[in-house]
Design a protein that fits this description.
Elements (H helix, E strand, L loop, with lengths): L1 H21 L6 E5 L6 H17 L3 E5 L6 H8 L7 E6 H8 L10 E10 L1 E6 L7 H9 L5 E5 L4 H13 L4 E5 L2 H9 L5 E5 H10 L2 E6 L25 E8 L4 H17 L3 H6 L3 E5 L1 H24 L1
Parallel strand pairs: 1-2, 1-3, 6-7, 6-8
Antiparallel strand pairs: 3-10, 4-10, 4-11, 5-8, 5-9
InterPro entries: BUG (IPR005064), Bug_dom1 (IPR042100)
Keywords: Signal
Protein name: Tripartite tricarboxylate transporter substrate binding protein
Length: about 325
């Protein structure tokens, strides 16, 4: 009888524990955005916020913790309890920071829940630029012209992407870093730099207004959000990169929490409720989960490490 009572007690405890996890989430969830308000990661999360709150039946508390190119916020997220109640907006920045050796964590210190969006890196020039296409800009650099290319921040993913293109084209550009995307775009529109490399979503407004002209972008195939912009590969440059955005938490997230998030995101994607918003932001919905996501992150980390090494050598 004692053994039976003990067995029943253990079974009851296990059922209670399972029931508690099944009720996830039982409280508000903190979402750390490792950049200031208004940037690409912040816009992405805030656009998803009401849809996620409805699916998860809780409040998503967005906390902008900027600094160090995303290092401060991501370090805070990685050091948080792995209970599913502190997550972070993840992007290329996480892998870039690791590749450059600017943080103590690696991508393996995170549990990646989902990749949701992608956008291409775009090379654009001012509306009055003398460069009609990528070949013209590359040829000028090869002939000794100092082609100035604006990027947002030293060692940012956009900076690394710009270096990767220069390596592919076998030229040296004069990279000019600016504090953020808006300053970089202003510099290009004002003729202070010859070109700019940024994510397509950040450039969308300037491209639509005609103040900037896109010469090429980094997808393997043309983007639905930028159908008139040729890929680097179309122009003869064998380079393919993407800016991706998703959700991650500290390593060791409960499976119940990950499952709840994945199910919520899958439902949002399948219902199409986020499609118009993503399109208006110039972003492409390209979701990945589970093993496919892990393979994507590992491959992306290797690409970033290689490109970061090229950057450090310059």
């Amino acid at each position: 009888m004692k053994k039976l009572a003990l067995s029943l007690s253990v079974a009851t405890a296990m059922m209670a524990s399972a029931g508690a996890f099944a009720e996830y989430p039982e409280q508000n969830i903190d979402m750390i955005v490792p950049f200031s308000a208004g940037g690409g990661n912040d816009t992405f999360v805030r656009a998803l916020q009401p849809l996620l709150e409805e699916k998860l039946d809780t409040n998503l508390v967005i906390r902008n913790i900027s600094g160090g190119g995303g290092a401060v916020g991501l370090t805070r997220a990685q050091a948080s309890d792995a209970d599913g109640y502190t997550l972070a907006a993840a992007s290329n920045a996480l892998l870039t920071l690791e590749a450059l050796g600017n943080v103590d964590f690696t991508y393996e210190d995170f549990d990646f829940v989902a990749k949701i969006l992608e956008e291409p890196y775009v090379i654009a020039v001012g509306e009055d630029s003398e460069y009609a296409d990528l070949d013209a800009m590359v040829e000028a650099a090869k002939e000794g012209t100092s082609v100035q290319v604006g990027v947002s921040g030293v060692g940012s993913s956009a900076h690394i992407a710009a270096v990767a293109f220069a390596d592919t084209a076998e030229v040296d550009f004069n990279f000019i870093p600016y504090p953020g995307g808006s300053e970089t775009i202003s510099a290009a529109m004002g003729g202070h730099v010859d070109a700019v490399v940024l994510g397509g979503a950040e450039l969308r407004s300037a491209l639509e207004s005609g103040r900037l002209k896109a010469l090429g972008m980094s997808y393997a195939e043309r983007s639905e959000s930028l159908p008139d912009v040729p890929t680097f590969q179309e122009e003869g440059y064998n380079l393919s990169l993407t800016v991706w955005r998703g959700i991650a938490g500290p390593d060791g997230l409960p499976e119940e929490a990950k499952e709840a998030w994945v199910n919520a995101i899958k439902e949002i994607v399948e219902e199409g409720s986020f499609e118009e918003t993503a399109s208006n932001l110039g972003l492409d919905i390209v979701p990945l989960y589970g093993d496919e996501l892990e393979a994507f992150i590992a491959e992306s980390a290797e690409v970033m490490k290689e490109s970061a090494g090229d950057l450090a050598a310059k």
